[in-house]
């Protein structure tokens, strides 16, 4: 038999038993087994003979018939036309059958893996979310400007999405997720034009910041539509100034949300002579989201908790992730990472959820709730060895110092 290609090092023989490398860490071993090739690579099927290729085609036909997925949807995921898939499964395809079968099998693998994976995180109205709600709604009531900032992973984005989706005070609110593509003033104005005119004006035709700004003012003046900028720390100083002028010209509330460096960028506006008055002077509300007393996390905690055990357990429950009470306490401490690591940019709640997801995949063969030991093992894989060792020690100490109540 010819040597196997380098991207299939763990297949010892086409029809033989697979022998995955056994890493020392049980989480790596679990991930290795989950990602292991379940059948021979289809690019080798032609070498193995027509029977193997016929078997692969039969598997594809069976998947389309019994998965509940339409031929159209399957073809879209494979990124070919309906007729191409139809020709393939009926033995009439004239192109490279082996290559197309490989693509189909890859899509089927991805779909099957998603079925066994933990669900996506859903919005939970945590104390942090309620604080963001309150700040945004108060700003909208007074048609002011606000700046809210905090480390990654607090749930800022999912909270803003939930706020806009629920309507109410934010009915017709504009939510812009800033990124490098819209960081500069002209591109920010183009994004406003895209959202406001819904195709009636081509954003690409906006030739300058001034032209885009004029279009936005024309549409927004007197509407009092809230303008919410997520990841506002990505914006340039000039773009922050554009938003200040937009607020002054239209009366629309403007809410800037981002990471802690947003505060530093706002402060820089006071040192630019062209900008004039400070953007900070326009703010009705300025909040560091990890400051202030958010309430006890349960038990004897006397600090400002970002997330309680009950909130973290609710997030995991919505994702169909089961953990033991001890693991729940530990994940709650991990979610409060900003308290543990002096405002560390690590994504407390997001990081806790990712560790739990990693553990679910790695220990999928067990029907028992995830144990504290399994969660810790997963956390060692989620970060490099040095970082994870220090972090685990910090979280262990945090749990010992505070009696975090597990969800009932």
Distance between the termini: 59 Å
Helix content: 40-55%
CATH superfamily of the largest domain: P-loop containing nucleotide triphosphate hydrolases
Low-confidence runs:
1-23, 37-47, 293-303, 404-408
Radius of gyration: 26 Å
Compute the number of strand runs.
Answer: 5
**CATH level 1 class label of the largest domain:** Alpha Beta
N to C succession of SSEs: HHHHHHHEHEHHEHEHEHHHHHH
Tell me the β content.
5-15%
Number of domains: 3
Q: How would the global form be characterised?
A: flat
> Main β-sheet: number of strands, strand sense, barrel status?
5 strands, parallel
CATH architecture descriptor text of the largest domain: 3-Layer(aba) Sandwich
- Based on helices, strands and strand pairing, what is the structural class? mainly alpha
| CATH T-level fold name of the largest domain | Rossmann fold
Mean pLDDT value: 80
Q: How is this structure best described in words?
A:
It is a single chain. The protein folds into three domains: 36-116, lambda repressor-like DNA-binding domains (434 Repressor (Amino-terminal Domain)), CATH 1.10.260; 127-288, P-loop containing nucleotide triphosphate hydrolases (Rossmann fold), CATH 3.40.50.300; 309-401, Helicase, Ruva Protein, domain 3, CATH 1.10.8. It is 51% helix and 6% strand. The protein has helices at 26-35, 45-48, 50-66, 71-78, 82-89, 97-116, 127-141, 156-166, 185-197, 209-220, 237-250, 261-268, 309-318, 325-335, 337-340, 348-362, 372-382, 385-401; strands at 145-149, 174-177, 227-230, 254-258, 283-288. Strands 2-3-4-1-5 form a five-stranded parallel beta sheet, sandwiched between helices. Helix 11 (237-250) links the parallel strand 3 and strand 4 (254-258). Helix 10 (209-220) runs parallel beside helix 11. The termini are far apart.
């Amino acid at each position: 038999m010819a040597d196997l290609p380098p991207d299939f090092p763990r297949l010892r023989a086409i029809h033989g038993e697979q022998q995955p490398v056994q890493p020392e860490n049980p989480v790596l071993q679990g991930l290795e087994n989950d990602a292991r090739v379940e059948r021979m690579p289809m690019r080798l099927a032609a070498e193995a003979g027509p029977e193997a290729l016929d078997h692969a085609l039969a598997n594809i036909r069976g998947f389309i018939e019994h998965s509940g997925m339409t031929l159209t949807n399957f073809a879209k995921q494979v990124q070919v036309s309906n007729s191409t898939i139809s020709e393939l499964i009926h033995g009439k395809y004239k192109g490279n059958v082996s290559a197309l079968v490989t693509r189909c099998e890859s899509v089927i693998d991805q779909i099957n893996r998603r079925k066994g994976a933990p669900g996506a995180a859903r919005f939970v109205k945590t104390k942090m979310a309620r604080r963001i709600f309150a700040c945004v709604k108060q700003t909208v009531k007074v048609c002011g400007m606000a700046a809210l900032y905090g480390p990654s992973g607090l749930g800022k984005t999912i909270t803003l999405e939930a706020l806009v989706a629920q309507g109410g005070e934010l009915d017709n609110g504009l939510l812009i997720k800033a990124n490098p593509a819209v960081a500069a003033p002209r591109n920010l104005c183009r994004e406003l034009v895209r959202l406001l005119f819904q195709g009636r004006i081509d954003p690409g035709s906006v030739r300058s910041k001034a032209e885009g700004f004029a279009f936005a003012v024309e549409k927004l003046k007197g509407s009092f539509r809230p303008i919410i900028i997520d990841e506002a720390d990505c914006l340039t100083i000039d773009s922050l100034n554009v938003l200040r002028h937009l607020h002054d010209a239209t009366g629309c509330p403007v809410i800037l949300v981002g990471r802690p460096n947003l505060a530093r960028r706002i402060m820089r506006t006071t040192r630019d002579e062209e900008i004039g008055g400070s953007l900070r002077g326009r703010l009705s509300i300025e909040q560091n989201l990890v400051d202030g007393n958010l309430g006890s996390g349960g038990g004897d905690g006397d600090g400002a908790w970002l997330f309680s055990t009950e909130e973290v357990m609710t997030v995991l429950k919505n994702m169909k992730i089961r953990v033991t009470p001890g693991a729940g306490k530990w994940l709650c401490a991990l979610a409060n990472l900003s308290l543990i690591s002096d405002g560390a940019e690590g994504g407390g709640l997001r990081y806790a959820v990712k560790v739990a997801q990693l553990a679910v995949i790695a220990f999928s063969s067990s029907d028992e709730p995830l144990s504290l030991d399994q969660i810790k093992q997963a956390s060692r894989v989620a970060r490099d060895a040095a970082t994870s060792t220090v972090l685990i020690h910090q979280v262990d100490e945090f749990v010992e110092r505070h009696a975090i109540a597990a969800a009932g």
